[in-house]
Amino acid sequence: MSMKTVRAGVIGVLLAAGTVLAPQPASAAPFDLAGWATQGGGTTGGGNASPVTVTSSSALISAMQSSSPAVIRVSGSIAISGMQKVASNKTLIGVGSTAAITGGGLNIANASNVIVRNINFRGWSDDAINVQYSTRVWIDHNQFSNGNDGAVDVKRASDYVTVSWNKFIDHDKTMLLGHSDSNGGEDRGKLRVTYHHNWFAGTNQRHPRVRFGNPVHVYNNYYASIGSYGVASTMEAGVLVEGNYFENTEDPFHRGEGSSPAGSLVARNNHFVNSGSGDAGGSVRSIPYSYTLDSASSVKSSVSSGAGTGRI
């Protein structure tokens, strides 16, 4: 597998459309935390707290909403209703490949330092995961399918978020970043999110749809048979779309969406199979962290074997 490590700052203050950095030989990408959630002090969730295993909605909700740091092991399928709050300093991690949260979703609101890993989200009534007014959040190795609104939505001044190695199946509005063109007073200078090594399998739109965040980093994701579009940069956003694998995706990325004006989008090192070429333009702020970049042509293989539940 061909990869390269990109050191913080090597991209420069602004990225011009069409910049190309050729990947170099290296080892396989690890499942460790990378991207924006490493910034601002990093993301450790419940840290070294003694793990507690939950098998019921009441136990799950009680543990998630505790004021103390907690490592919460989700065992089996747990049905919840509505959006249930997740407090600061929490790790939620599924046991095995079958751990599931169904019917409702997680509301990471006014919180910091939260990790959600290895959980199957199905049939949520609002959002599967909503992040708002929160910082230092890592959403990793989950699977999302057949829900109502957003799968992973990040909004309202949230910052320092990484969404990695997740699988999204048969869903429409996959990932919104920034909920409104009129919320610039809260969102400018924030909404900095990294999306990497996610697998979008037959989903429709918002992978992600971005407002205000700059730089937003979308790298090494696998887009398979996307219905409407892949990535949209709108309303003052700056998005780096790098090293992704687009297959059977007519509109891989573009600027502007609906009534939202065009943002900036820099695309480089992407791989296209039976897909359109996309619409890029403008410049994007520097990526401040180091990261390991797969060769785009290898992304289908690495992501399809590594994304989703039961891999960690």
Explained architecture:
The chain is mostly beta strands and 312 residues long. Helix content is 6%, strand content 38%. It is built from three helices and 31 strands. The protein has helices at 57-64, 184-187, 299-306; strands at residues 3-6, 14-16, 52-54, 70-74, 77-79, 83-85, 90-94, 100-102, 105-109, 112-117, 120-122, 129-132, 135-140, 143-145, 152-155, 159-164, 167-169, 176-177, 193-196, 199-201, 209-211, 216-219, 222-224, 231-234, 238-242, 245-247, 253-255, 264-268, 271-273, 283-285, 291-294. Strands 3-4-7-10-13-16-19-22-25-28 form a ten-stranded parallel sheet, covered by helices on one side. α1 links the parallel β3 (52-54) and β4. The radius of gyration is 18 Å and the shape is globular. Residues 10-27 have low confidence and may be disordered.
User: What is the CA-based Rg, rounded?
Assistant: 18 Å
**Within the largest sheet, what's the order of strands?**
3-4-7-10-13-16-19-22-25-28
Count, helices: 3
Major beta sheet, specifics?
10 strands, parallel
Q: Could you list the spans in which at least 5 consecutive residues all have pLDDT below 50?
A: 10-27
Number of strands: 31
Tell me the overall shape: globular
Mean pLDDT: 93
- Terminal CA distance: 20 Å
Name the helicity range: under 10%
Structural class: mainly beta
Sheet-strand content, in percent, reads 35-45%
